[in-house]
Design brief:
This protein is mainly alpha-helical. It is built from 7 helices and 6 strands; from the N terminus they run H-H-H-H-E-E-H-E-E-E-E-H-H. The radius of gyration is 26 Å and the shape is elongated. It starts with 5 loop residues before the first helix and ends with a helix.
Length: 205
């Protein structure tokens, strides 16, 4: 990608996807392969495309165009179907990224694949998955959305875990201060109450 050989980069991108998904001898992806595709690998690929093309290519770039043309990424993985699929709206996306021109789908060799002639979002093109008439890009963009959600949820979990830890530490310090300030019998009572409070918190986990 750094050398701007975009057609070669697109082919190598597919090879990496197949290797990352562990398809073995298969030269294509199944829906389960896409559903379980490694978020770290997908985000890294997107980062390379976006960075080396100065925002001209990339999965996240395609996702923005996909949604801006009125498409939905609401896919039911269990039923294996789109909830709000619209072929005419999808064609708007295909034309927007330059995969279709004048109502005709372009062959792979017809795509310019350069920063001067290519439309924004033209690449990556090859994903290794076809489901009927629906281009496989839709499934990968949906996976990207799920990966972003998982990343956000992880951050939230880490925040709440650390926040909870701070609260526990604060409670311990408060009980310790009370214990040190009180004499004899009252110390024993406070100490017992503190232990019971901590046990109740631990049991709530």
């Amino acid at each position: 990608m750094q050398e701007k050989r975009w057609r070669e980069a697109d082919r190598k991108n597919l090879q990496f996807i197949l290797t990352s998904a562990g398809t073995g001898q298969r030269s294509f992806l199944s829906l389960n392969d896409v559903k379980n595709f490694k978020c770290g690998d997908l985000k890294q690929l997107d980062k390379l495309w976006v960075k080396n093309s100065q925002g001209h290519f990339g999965y996240s770039i395609q996702k923005k165009i996909y949604l801006s043309t009125g498409n939905s990424l609401d896919f039911d993985w269990e039923k294996r179907q789109w909830r709000n699929w619209n072929s005419s709206v999808y064609n708007k996306f295909v034309e927007s990224v330059g995969w279709k021109r004048g109502g005709k789908r372009l062959m792979y060799s017809e795509l310019p694949m350069n920063l001067f002639e290519s439309k924004v979002g033209e690449l990556p093109y090859r994903y290794g998955l076809y489901i009927g008439r629906i281009r496989e890009s839709s499934f990968f963009l949906q996976r990207l959305v799920n990966c972003n959600r998982l990343g956000f949820h992880s951050i939230v979990k880490i925040f709440y875990r650390k926040f909870f830890h701070v609260i526990i530490r604060f409670s311990e310090i408060r009980y310790l201060a009370q214990y040190l300030l009180l004499p004899g019998k009252k110390k024993y009572k406070i100490k017992s109450n503190a232990k019971l409070s901590m046990l109740s918190i631990l049991n709530c986990k």
